[in-house]
Amino acid sequence: MKQVTNPIIKTANLSIGYSSKKGINTIASNLNINLESGNLVCLLGKNGIGKSTLLRTITKVQPALEGDVLIDNAYLETFTNHSLAKTLSLVLTERLPDTSLTVYELVALGRQPFTNWIGYLTTNDLEIIQASFEKTNTQHLMNAKCHELSDGQLQKVLIARALAQDTPIIVLDEPTAHLDLHHTINTFTLLKKLAKDFNKTIIVSTHEINLALQIADALWLMTPTKFIAGTTAELISNNDLNLLFDSELISFNKTLKQFTINHS
Amino acid sequence: MLNPIKSYRNTFIILVIVLLIICLINISLGSVSIPLKQLFLSLINGEVEKESWRTIILNYRLPKAITAIIVGSGLSISGLLMQTLFRNPLAGPFVLGISSGASLGVAILILGASFLGANITSYAFTNFGIAIAASLGSFIVLLAVMLAAIKVRNTMSILIIGLMFGSITSSVISVLAYFSSASELQQYMFWSFGSLGNLSWKEITALFSIFIIGVALVTFIIKPLNSMLLGENYAKSMGVNVKLTRNITLIATSLLTGVITAFSGPIAFVGLAVPHLTKLLFNTSNHKTLLPAVAICGAIVMLICDSIAQMPNSEYTLPINAITSLFGAPIIIWLLVRKRKIYY
């Protein structure tokens, strides 16, 4: 992979996992990431390989076991919750609790790191919220209640909330898990547009491998043996994608550029 | 640019007017009937036909109405806080074990008195004595719940721990009751019925000051409470200090519920039901709207219950606790059957 001169996210010899009284459970180690801003990155790996753990570590939800994470050349530990909220926003995979918040109120919550103690929205805040609706094309949902939305609409609205937070980095954990093909493609196209047009750095963990290969600027592969980062072309030519599933059932077809089932 | 978040201004204006009217009705009702004109005159310190009427209004009915307002608002705010914190519609102001703690304190004072060889007519059994016993009891149980709360990470566990402490205290009370005399039991029962009257202006000042401190604390967590509606993880990602918010919520609830229970007994139902009632009226989850709304609705409900309890034109007063549940519960059931699900 080409050398990145000024990475927005950088990790050095990062080890991720969980430490408890019983001992240390390392999920993955030796992670070296150099990510340039304005990229759409897809994080791929099979279930249980540690995608969420990696995302949780670089978003400071849990501490690294070893090594460092640097965001915009600052060590992650130097960020407070509040300053990190201005740098990095999240779209989580968990379902929202039932609320009768309106969509507008939900998206407006994204402004919280910037508003005063009571959460007063200034003209500037209102403009950013409006722009977030426009960028995600969800203006028509503004007055609906969150619990009235379909899964596809809700995902877009949650992305709008992250946009309202106005952070250079957006991290999404399996945003298309509940969506059909149409809405999945819709979501990925939206993320691609946000990265390209608004210079957002977007990290998405996903199981939509075939789609990720077509749309991502960079891929992060978590395989049982190692962590590999690179562009789609690089990963294909190095045969790295076959490491993703150490299975005899499925393999990567270079000509089709997608995974196919092995017929025995 | 216009802020499209609904402000519900008209609903608020109507509610405040309703509150004022109910408040007047409440003061005008009682065992002695006083003409409305005389009531106004005594309130504004004018000439009254009978000086005793002024005394009744200023020293009995007005303090009781003010107590009802504080009790209703405070318990309802606490209930809302607990329901948001635990994301559980069954949570109320007493889930932290405050009422069971207060009951234990009073039970030990009244029912345990014979063990200590004290005389039941002594100073310890005055209003303030019971208030102190209730405060001590709820403080100790609350402290135990809080210590456990620091240890556990999961917010839901705090709810269960609170309930467990509740069962422990009620079984201790059962044991005490088993060994008590009939007159002691009766006195304890009277306390547990709850009461809004009997508070002097001095006691109301104490109640009101702590109420204001509690409400002031709550205004500082309106913003983080709103982001908590999306779950703790989202709240954290928006820069909210979840633990601090949780602790302020617990402290504000304890202050409000603790002081109210100390002075007026364990008043059931209001704290649990009023937030639901308010959400049906306002259909919002935004705490900037809900908190003042819940406070006003709580005051209205409490005043109505108190008006019913004093049984107009009779010299009897029914226990307030019976009224709150007897009249309140069917209303909530009716509302829920008519409307659909309540969202948080």
Automatic annotation (TrEMBL), chain A:
Pfam families: ABC_tran. Gene3D superfamilies: P-loop containing nucleotide triphosphate hydrolases. This is Iron complex transport system ATP-binding protein. It comes from Lutibacter agarilyticus. Keywords: ATP-binding, Nucleotide-binding, Transport. One of its GO terms (molecular function) is ATP hydrolysis activity. It comes from the Bacteria. SMART domains: AAA. Residues 9-249 form the ABC transporter domain.
From TrEMBL, chain B:
Pfam families: FecCD. Keywords: Cell membrane, Membrane, Transmembrane, Transmembrane helix, Transport. GO terms for molecular function: transmembrane transporter activity. Gene3D superfamilies: ABC transporter involved in vitamin B12 uptake, BtuC. InterPro entries: ABC_BtuC-like, ABC_transptr_permease_BtuC. It is found in: Cell membrane. Signal peptide: none annotated. It is a multi-pass membrane protein. Belongs to the binding-protein-dependent transport system permease family. FecCD subfamily. This is Iron complex transport system permease protein. It comes from Lutibacter agarilyticus.
